[in-house]
Description:
This protein is mainly α. The chain has helices spanning 22-51, 58-72, 84-99, 132-174, and strands spanning 180-184, 193-197, 201-205. It contains four helices and three strands. Strands 1-2-3 form a three-stranded antiparallel beta sheet. The protein is rod-shaped, with a radius of gyration of 28 Å.
Amino acid sequence: MTTPAVPANIPVDPVNMPAVPGRVVATWRMLLVALVTIYCTLATLVVRGLIGGFGLGPLDCFLIAISTLIATLAVLPMGAVIDLPEALWQHWIPERRWRAGRCPTCGYDAHRTLCPECGTPFAAPVAYASDWHTLRRTVWIVFPSWAMGVAAGLVLMHFDERSFVSKVDSMRRSEPELREHSHTRAWPAEFATMTWTAGRGFAGLPPFESPKTDRAIDK
C-alpha cells in the first residue's frame, strides 16, 4: 500500500527548514561589513571634495558624516543580498530538491507524506521574501559600517591635507617668494583642489569654485 503524497501547495513548516551553517552566515556578514565600510570610506572622501573645506573642525566632521550617511542609505534596500545564506539554504536549495522529488530539508529521495530520514513533510518549501528581520539585519550591518567608514575616511583625509601643508611649508622655505600653490586631493576626490595663498592661507575648494590660474596645478 502506497502512502499518499502531500499536496504540493502545502508549504514546509519553517521550523523544519534546513539550518544555515553558522560559519557561512558569519563570513557573509563580515564580508558585507567590509564592503559597506569601504563604500562609506570612499563616499566620505568624495563628500569632502564636493562640499569643500580644509581641516577637521567639529562642523566639518558633522556635515561630512551626515552627507555620507545620506549616501549610505542607498544600500539599505539590499534585501536578498543580506539574507543570501538564509535564502540559499532555506529556500532556493530546498525548492530545487522538492522539484527533483527529494526531501527539501535533507535531500533524501522519497515521495512520501513524511521524509523517512528527517521527518520533514514532503511539500513545497516556503518562497523567500524579505521581512522585518531582513531590515533589522541590514541596519546592524549598515550603521556600524557607516561609522567605521566615516572614521577611516576622515583619517585618510587628514593625512592628505597634512601632506599638502608639509609640502607647502617645504616649498616656502626653499622659495620665499612663493605666493600660492594648488594640489588636487587624493583619489577618489581628484576632482577637487586644495589651495594655499599667502593672504588666505589653506583652503579646500569644491570643483565649481576651483581657481583658474595660469599656473599648473600640482598633481
